[in-house]
Each structure stands twice: as structure tokens, then as C-alpha cells.
Automatic annotation (TrEMBL):
PANTHER family: INNER MEMBRANE PROTEIN YBBJ. It is found in: Membrane. It is a multi-pass membrane protein. Residues 91-152 form the NfeD-like C-terminal domain. It comes from Microbulbifer bruguierae. This is NfeD family protein. The chain crosses the membrane at residues 12-36, 42-73. Keywords: Membrane, Transmembrane, Transmembrane helix. Its main location: membrane. The lineage of its organism: Bacteria, Pseudomonadati, Pseudomonadota, Gammaproteobacteria, Cellvibrionales.
Length: 153
């Protein structure tokens, strides 16, 4: 069997295997197959330059795959946090502090501005139980529809 594999496995077999594994990652969660596929692609490129027996190819592929998975799980994944706030409107806005740019004195609502855009907007409409003058810093305590509920900070 090994004799047959030694004579019939070519570099492009590894490239195809790598592409199949990377494509299969779309259907499997965990981001693990990607690293096995990447190792297979590396083996395909390596075989273009250096010929080696199938047992050594399999050992290199397995070792590189495991090393890439360990690197991913131990060093890359913990630092790869989702810092976006998409889909988390309530969590992204609650506790944020902004400055009033249109007072709610004599009206039910005013406008405030955040130092940096939150959920794509840096100006938001707000309502408060107390009247707030222009320039006062306010803190978001809740959300009512598209309007922020704030209190003076």
C-alpha cells in the first residue's frame, strides 16, 4: 500500500486536500479544519521543491497541523476578540457618556453627541426625567425605541 502511495501521490493531491479541508471549514464550526487544510497546502508546495516518501509527508502534515491548531488555540484565538458592538445595541449604548448639543428644556427630547460613533452614529436623540442644558455630560441608562434615556453624569 505504501509503495502504491509513494508512486501515486503528487503535490497536487495535497493542494486539493488542502482546498477541500479549507472549504469544509465553512460547514463545520470551530475553525479547526482550516489549519489542517493550510498544512496540506503547505505540504503541496513543499513537495514541489522537495520529494519525500509518503510516511514523511504524513508525519510533516500531522505535525504541522497539530502545531497550527495549538498556535491558534493558545495564542491567536484568545487575542482575537470581537470588539464590535453589532447586534448588541442595548449593551453598546448603556453606560456611554456624551455631551448634550440640543437641550430638552421646554421639550420632551434633546440631542447628544458621543466622542466616537456608537453603532455608526455619534449623535443621538435623548429623553430625560430632568431638564438638561447644552454642554452637560449625560450617561445613557436605558433605551426606549430609537431614543436614549439619560441622566446627568
Amino acid at each position: 500500500m505504501l509503495e502504491w502511495l509513494n508512486t501515486h501521490i503528487a503535490y497536487w493531491h495535497w493542494l486539493v486536500l488542502g482546498l477541500l479541508l479549507i472549504t469544509a471549514e465553512i460547514f463545520v464550526s470551530g475553525f479547526i479544519l482550516f489549519w489542517f487544510g493550510l498544512a496540506a497546502l503547505f505540504m503541496g508546495v513543499l513537495l514541489l521543491a522537495v520529494g519525500m516518501p509518503i510516511t514523511l509527508q504524513l508525519l510533516f502534515w500531522a505535525g504541522l497541523s497539530v502545531a497550527l491548531v495549538v498556535l491558534w488555540l493558545k495564542y491567536i484565538r484568545p487575542n482575537w476578540k470581537d470588539r464590535t458592538t453589532s447586534g448588541m445595541a442595548m449593551e453598546a449604548l448603556t453606560g456611554q457618556v456624551g455631551s448634550v448639543i440640543e437641550s430638552n428644556i421646554g421639550r420632551s427630547r434633546g440631542r447628544l453627541r458621543f466622542p466616537a460613533p456608537i453603532l455608526g452614529e455619534d449623535e443621538w436623540q435623548f429623553m430625560s426625567t430632568s431638564e438638561v442644558a447644552v454642554g452637560v455630560r449625560v450617561k445613557v441608562i436605558n433605551i426606549s425605541g430609537n431614543t436614549l434615556v439619560v441622566s446627568p453624569h
